[in-house]
Amino acid sequence: MPAEKRTLRSYAKELRRKQTDAERVLWMRLRARQVNGLKFRRQHPIGRYIADFCCPEKCLVIEIDGGQHMNRTFADERRTEFLVQEGYRVLRYWNHDVLTAPEAVLQHIIQEAESPSPHPLPERARVKADN
């Protein structure tokens, strides 16, 4: 396994140990297939990024943003562009929304997970998944 991949995986593991309050609240609702039987992963590496939550089956990424993201809009846009090019749909929620209205956030996630993806997997990913 390349050193860069090992480093990204170890960083993802560290992020799982140091999750924010909002990530903890949402994870308690997403874990163990509680949302329509879908498997979500937390702090899941995709390319050079680590998604807060990912449902590979539905090609769905969920990002929970804190106040620091107000100053990182360009970086977040590049990250979202990359994930969309990889075939993922990206949902972003503010920490405040997850902490104050977790049911509304969860209902939106369920709605998005059940709707067809506007960005199907790239051809190379489909071929790879079939093997």
| Count of beta strands | 4
Uncertain regions spanning at least 5 consecutive residues: 126-131
Classify the beta-strand content into a percent band.
15-25%
Helix proportion range: 40-55%
- Strand adjacency order, main sheet: 1-2-3-4
Order of helices and strands: HHEEEHEHHH
Structural class: alpha+beta
Shape: globular
Radius of gyration based on Cα positions: 15 Å
Largest sheet, strands/sense/barrel: 4 strands, mixed
Question: What is the residue-averaged pLDDT?
Answer: 85
Number of helices: 6
Query: How far apart, in Å, are the first and last alpha carbons?
Result: 21 Å
Salient structural properties:
four-stranded mixed beta sheet, 19% strand, alpha+beta, disordered C terminus, 131 residues, 6 helices
How is this structure best described in words?
This protein is of the alpha+beta class and about 130 residues long. Strand 3 (about 60-65), helix 3 (about 75-85) and strand 4 (about 90-95) form a beta-alpha-beta unit. It is built from 6 helices and 4 strands; from the N terminus they run H-H-E-E-E-H-E-H-H-H. A 4-stranded mixed β-sheet has the order 1-2-3-4, sandwiched between helices. Helices cover about 50% and strands about 20% of the residues.
Give a summary of the structure in a few sentences:
The protein has helices at 3-17, 21-30, 73-85, 95-100, 102-114, 123-130, and strands spanning 41-46, 49-55, 60-65, 89-94. The protein has 131 residues and is an alpha+beta fold.
